[in-house]
Specification:
It is built from three helices and seven strands. By secondary structure, it is α+β, with helices and mostly antiparallel strands. The protein has a single domain, classed as Gcn5-related N-acetyltransferase (GNAT) (Aminopeptidase). The protein has a seven-stranded mixed β-sheet, with helices on one face. The two termini are 19 Å apart.
Length: 151
């Protein structure tokens, strides 16, 4: 709980939530910008209510979060090899924002993590200078809205 409270306060500029029309929180993305890499947003956590998966909500949240800061040129995250939905979300984001992608073995099971935890692969997407980023439009047909968290 303490960690989540810190995410909502100290990292509010790099976090976003989505709410249903009834005001229920249906999604949350948290991240941070490391002082030594002010042009890179690291996404730490993506959570989305099962009822809203596959409807573009997480993709819209991720784009809105990244587009808040014009200085950002890169996005990093780690994804376990078996997490196909996250791989698809981030691959779509990288494509939509005209980014090249590198993958690097980052944290190894049994070395950095418990042996029953999968490896964590680092995904680094960087804007290609030749392409402009694409802004993802929010559909009026969706039954949710994004709430900008600001500190």
């Amino acid at each position: 709980m303490y960690c989540n409270l810190l995410q909502c306060t100290d990292f509010s500029r790099t976090s976003i939530i989505a709410e249903s029309n009834d005001g229920d929180i249906i999604g949350f993305i948290s991240g941070y910008i490391a002082p030594e890499s002010p042009e890179t947003l690291f996404i730490w956590q993506v959570a989305l209510d099962q009822r809203y998966r596959g409807k573009g909500v997480a993709s819209q949240m991720l784009s809105r979060l990244f587009n808040r800061n014009e200085a950002l040129q890169s996005l990093k995250t780690t994804i376990s090899p078996s997490n196909a939905p996250s791989q698809k979300l981030f691959q779509t984001f990288f494509e939509n924002h005209g980014m090249t992608v590198e993958t690097i073995e980052h944290f190894k099971a049994g070395v950095h993590l418990d042996s029953d935890h999968e490896d964590e692969i680092l995904y680094l997407g960087t804007r290609m200078e030749a392409k402009e980023s694409v802004t993802v439009q929010t559909s009026n047909k969706q039954h949710h809205h994004l709430t900008e968290a600001t500190g």
